[in-house]
Design goal:
The complex is a heterodimer.
Chain A lengths: L5 E12 L2 E12 L3 E5 L6 H9 L6 E6 L2 E2 L4 H6 L1 E4 L11 H11 L6 H10 L15 H12 L6 E5 L7 H16 L3 E5 L3 H7 L2 E6 L2 E6 L1 H8 L3 H6 L7 H9 L6
Parallel strand pairs in A: 3-8, 3-9, 6-7, 7-8
Antiparallel strand pairs in A: 1-2, 1-4, 4-5, 9-10
Chain B lengths: L7 H18 L1 H17 L4 H4 L1 H31 L1 H6 L5 H29 L7 H28 L3 H24 L3 H9 L2 H13 L6 H24 L6
Helix pairs in contact in B: 1-6, 2-4, 2-6, 4-6, 4-7, 4-8, 4-10, 6-7, 7-10, 7-11, 8-9, 8-10, 10-11
Classes of the chains: A alpha/beta, B mainly alpha.
Bound molecules: adenosine-5'-triphosphate (ATP) and magnesium ion (MG).
Magnesium ion (MG) binds next to helix 1 of chain A.
GO molecular function (chain B): ABC-type transporter activity
InterPro entries (chain B): ABC-2_transporter, ABC2_TM
Keywords (chain B): Membrane, Transmembrane, Transmembrane helix
Amino acid sequence: MNNHEQILNVEGLNVYYGTTHAVQNVSFDVKRGEIFGLLGPNGAGKTSTLSAIEGLLNYHSGSISVAGHNNKAKPLHAKAALGVQLQSTSFQPELTILEILQLYAGIYGLSLRKEELMGKLQDIKLADAANKKFGQLSGGQQQRVSLVIATIHTPQLVLLDEPTTGLDPQSRRQLWERIEGIREKGHGVLLTTHSMEEAQSVCDRIGIIDHGKVIEVNTPEALIEKHKDEPEVIRVSRKGRITLEDVFIALTGTEIRS
Amino acid sequence: MEINIPKSSTVFSALLRADFTTQWRNRRSAVLALLIPVIILISWKGIIVKYGGAFVLSSSIALGLVAIGLMGYTNSVARDRDKGIFQRLRVAPIPSWAIMISRLTVQLTMILIVTICVFITGYYVDGIHLSAVGYLLTVISALVGGAVYLSLGQMIVGLIKNPETVNSTTRLVYFVFIITGMIGGLGFLGDIAQKLARWSPYGTVQTMLAGSLQPDLWHNETTMALLVTLGYTLFFAFMGIKKFKWNTR
Ligand SMILES: Nc1ncnc2c1ncn2[C@@H]1O[C@H](COP(=O)(O)OP(=O)(O)OP(=O)(O)O)[C@@H](O)[C@H]1O
Ligand SMILES: [Mg+2]
């Protein structure tokens, strides 16, 4: 594998919470110019995997490198190459949206003028909300703000944890366009989603994770092609055509997770 | 592709700007830390004759410092941690301690403001006039004393995660310090209680402040109080940093 092509490399990752082995020997990589979807049922270990990459938790073993920098040996280099949207984000409730943007521009090393920051808000149609507090925005608007912050420094790798949750169809469209724009620049995207339809249409490759283990990594088409004739897939399929969702459910089981 | 780590100056000015703005928006609760010492100064005017200006000034500054360290710093850290605000900051390419240094800078500024307000009130309301050296030393002592309560607060958020519990703990400790101040200074409960109170984290700061206000009267016990204060700070800070977790989950 050409290391230069990889923007993220995760190798043999193990995360424990006390005795819970939340991420078990997970390995995958994300290439430049690729949108990689991490799919799995609730509690599968997606957020835990992302947290380990973000440097928020001290993983037990394995190695993670972002843009060629090991995130334990060179945490600031790894973080500087990352743009992050957490599954649940909150910002200081006293600050306005504009002030929050200004804060994050600054801690990513940018000194943007007010007009430039307003331009960023205009892109997500929230210029009117510049002087509102984060808590005064609707859930979807908050999601848009945290997405703008995730990409404010045009990072080489963007991590998005369920970015489309709570977005209306218009914003969702816009988000996909932005994500595809990141890919066109040759940067990488690692995202999680529970929408198989989205994953199928947007992701270049998909990793399916369950009970902390990666069970498959492939393109959506290859995953469907590989499993489409299995009886379990055909049994769970509801439409005439086999979809990624059918494959996902067949692989991870029909049971709802605790 | 080259990766640039943000310049420390850009990072710090962004953090400081946000933290000062936050403090400004919360000025109503900050005013409390300011008002209590001033109210003490005004209402204790009568006992100045008996106990001296230095005692009254040092007591009110000490209580102001406790309020800043425990209410201002501690409760806001507990709240922001619980909301996940730190987690978002920590995924940025900044060292974690920078987040805390910025917050502490805001609190040290508050300490300066409270101290100056006490000086002004003392001067005009109580007619307490100090030498230039006295004022300067007191400002330094206030910063050293403030550090005890900031680190005590750090220890509280290090040991307790739930912001509600942190809140009630800081209130309780604040109350205990007020009582301690009365016992130590006014000696209600006899000699042993008074001695304990004098060497408590409240008492040592108050002694140190009183010594700074009148540098000619600085004696061995004042130096001991300064050393003990530094000892408390180191212990609280060590515990507070060692036990601190950035998230509550
Ligand atoms: N801080 C924590 N302490 C203890 N256990 C945790 C913690 N965070 C996560 N877990 C456990 O680790 C497992 C993986 O959780 P994780 O949040 O990574 O799942 P996920 O795939 O992101 O799920 P979801 O789709 O619901 O977001 C779960 O069993 C969860 O209960
Ligand atoms: Mg999750």
